[in-house]
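pipeline stage [seq->struct] | target=Protein kinase domain-containing protein | organism=Carya illinoinensis | residues=397
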Amino acid sequence: MVTTGRVLVLQLYDHFLIITFMTFFPDWRISFSVLGTPFVIAFLIYKWRRRHLSAYNAVEEFLQSQNNLMPISYSYSEIKKMTKGFREKLGEGGYGTVFKGTLRSGYLVAVKMLGQSKTNGQDFINEVSTIGRIHHVNVVQLIGYCVHGSKRALVYDFMPKGSLNKYIFSSEESMFLDNEKTYNIALGVARGIEYLHRGCDMQILHFDIKPHNILLDENFIPKVSDFGLAKLYPIEDNTICLTAARGTLGYMAPELFYKNIGGISYKADIYSFGMLLMEMVGKRKNLNAFVEHSSQIYFPTWVYDQFNDGKDIEIECATEEEKEIVKKMIIVALWCIQMNPSNRPAMNKVLQMLEGEVEHLQIPSRPPLSSPERVIKNCEDNSSQVWLSSQTLSSTS
C-alpha cells in the first residue's frame, strides 16, 4: 500500500539524516554541546515535522489516487464553514470529536474530526476507502472527507437519534425501546452486516460491532458506523491474518486472541453481533458485577440456564407475541456467541433465524464464557487452557 511504502522510505531517510549528521560531526556529543541546546531542539523538530508532514502527504496522495471511488473532498475552510466554527459538539471519544454541520443545501451532517492518529493515517484511509464505496440503508453514508495537513475530517449523514448505546442502557422512560422496535433494529443491523460480508465485490469485516457504533435515524432505522478498524478481503477468503487483536473488550471474538480456538474470519463480526443482541434484549451490559444475584453477573450464561431449566424470561407488560420475539432474539444471540467460530451461523442464516418462527430454533450449547476472567477451554479438546483476563486484553479502538 502507498502509505506503508512511504513511511518505510521516511524511516530510511531519517536514518540517513542521522548518519549524515554524524559524518559531518564525528564527535557528535561534543558538537551538540558546542552548538547548544537550540540546535538540538531545532534538529529534532525538523525530523518530527518532516516525518509527520510526509505521512500526511502520503494519506492525501493515496486518496487522490482513488479519487474515482471516493466521496466528496472538502477543504478545511469548508469544514469550518459547515460546522459554523465547530460550534455544536455532538460527542467526543478516543477517535476524536463529532460536530453538527449543515451543507449549503441545508442538509444536516455530522462532522467527525479525528484525533491524532497512531497509525500514520491508516485508520482514516480504512474508513474512507471502505465506507466510501458502500450504499446500503443500514450502513451510515459517508458524504465526504477532508485532509489538511494533520487535520482530518469525515462528513456523514446526520443521525438525529444518536447511538443505540444511549437507549439500551438508559433508565429514563423517554429513552425506552419497546420489544418490537428492538427487534426491528436487530434486523436492520443484521442486514447491514450481511451486506458488508456478502453484498460488495470485497468482503468487509468490521471488527468493532457494538452499541456505540450503531446509529439511529429519525425513524430508528439503524446504521452500522465507524469503519476505522475495518478490513477488506476477497469474498472467497475463508480465514484471514491479523497482526494484532482489534475491537472493543466485551464484544471481541475469542479467536482474535487465541489461535487454537479457530481461524479469524467474518465469524468475528457474528460473535460481536451476538453480544450486541444480548445487550439489546437484556437492556444491560452482558457483564455486570452489580446485579442482585451472582448468577446474573454474566447475562448470556444466566439466560441460557433459565431456558435450560424451563423457565420463561420475565418481561413486564409484554404480549405473548413479544415474549416469543424476545426468546427468538436470545436463541439467535446464543448461536452467534458460540466459542468455536465454525458453530456460529453466517449472517444470512442469522437473518433467516430472526425472521422465522421461534419453534423452529434449537437451543445451542451453553456459552463457555461465564465471565471474561475465567478460564477458556479449547472447543475441540480440553487439553489446553488459556487465561482470558481484562488485565491482559487490549482494545485497538
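stage status: PASS
auto-comment: Residues 255 and 390 are 16 Å apart (CA to CA). Confidence is low (pLDDT under 50) at residues 1-24, 370-397.
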